Amino acid sequence: MLTMVRPVVQAGRSGRSLTRSALALAAGIGLLLTSGCGLLSGSEGSEDTESGMTTINLGTMPAVDVAPLHLAKEKGYFAEEGLKINTSTIAGGAQGIPKLASGELDITFGNWVSFIRAKQEGKVDIKAVSDAYQARKGTFLLMHMPDSAVQQPADLEGKKVAVNTRANLNELTAVSALKTRGVDTSKIEFVTMDFPDMPAALDRGDVAAASVIEPFISRANQLGAKTLLDQTAGPTANMPIAGYAATSEWTEQNPDAAAKFQKAMSKAQGEANGDRNAVEELLPDYTKIEPKTASLVTIGTYPSTLEASRLKSVVSLMENNGELPPNEFDINSMLFQPPKGDE
C-alpha cells in the first residue's frame, strides 16, 4: 500500500514553485498507483514492461526429472508464451515449499509427497501446475557397496540409509519396497543427504545404503556401487515422482502465467519422452555429469498431462505408510485448472 506524502513548505519558496512541485509529486504518485502495483506484490508474476515478458522465479534440482524444463528454455517454448524463467537450485521439494510461501519462488519443482503433505497439513495451499516425472524400472534404486556387510535387504536393519528428505517419496518408496521383502524398517536409521553426495558417501562407507536417482545412480555405479533393490518395482511400479507447484494465491493472481507455463511444459515433456538424445545432450549442462555418463543414465517417463487418476497412487502410498488419514485427501483439489479458453 502506498503512503501519500504531504509536501513541506520551505521558507522563501514562492507559491507558484510550490504548486509546481506538488503537482509533480502528485503525478509521480499517480504513475506508481496505475503502473507500479506489480512491484508491491512479491507473490505475483513480475512483468518486464520493456520486453513484455512475465518473469517466473522457479526452484529446480540437478536431476534427470527436470530435463524438459531445460528443453523448454533452450527451444524457446517459454518465450513463445511470453514467459521468462529464472531458476534457482533447491535441495528438494521440502526446501522449495517454504520459499513458495514467502514469495521467494513463484513455482517450485518437488516430489508429490512433499506437495500433498504441505496441503494436507495446511502449511501452504499448494496448486500443482505441471507434472514432471514418473518412475520406470531402474530410476529409483536402493544402492550399496558389494564388499560391505550389506548383502541383502534384511542386512540394513540396525544400519544407516541415506535419503534426500525424511518421509518424502524417496524414503516412502524405499520403505514400501523393503517391507514387501519382510524387512523391519523401524530398525533402520534413515539420514538426510543431498543426492549428489550419495555416491561418495557409499564409497566411503558413511552409510550402508542410499536411495539414489539419476544421474547419481550412474555416478554410484562408476564407483562400484550396486543395486540392492529397485524401489519402484512391484506395488510402486510406475509411481509418479515429481511435479511443479505454486501456491493457490499465486495461481489465482496469475492464472494466465500459470496456464502458459503449463502449456510450455506439456510441449517439452512430450518432446523429451520421444527424444532421448535431446535429454542426453542437456544433462551435462545442468547436472555437470560427463557426456559419457549421460549416455548411461536410465530415464523415466515425462508425463505431458496433469492427471488426478495417476497421482492417486501417491496418495495411496502415503495412506499405507501412515502419512495421510485414509480416504480423506482429495487430489483434485490440488490441481490447477487453466482458465476456459486457455486449454
Automatic annotation (TrEMBL):
<dbReference type="InterPro" id="IPR015168">
    <property type="entry name" value="SsuA/THI5"/>
</dbReference>
<keyword id="KW-0732">Signal</keyword>
<comment type="similarity">
    <text>Belongs to the bacterial solute-binding protein SsuA/TauA family.</text>
</comment>
<protein>
    <recommendedName>
        <fullName>SsuA/THI5-like domain-containing protein</fullName>
    </recommendedName>
</protein>
<feature type="domain" description="SsuA/THI5-like">
    <location>
        <begin position="65"/>
        <end position="270"/>
    </location>
</feature>
<dbReference type="GO" id="GO:0042597">
    <property type="term" value="C:periplasmic space"/>
</dbReference>
<dbReference type="Pfam" id="PF09084">
    <property type="entry name" value="NMT1"/>
</dbReference>
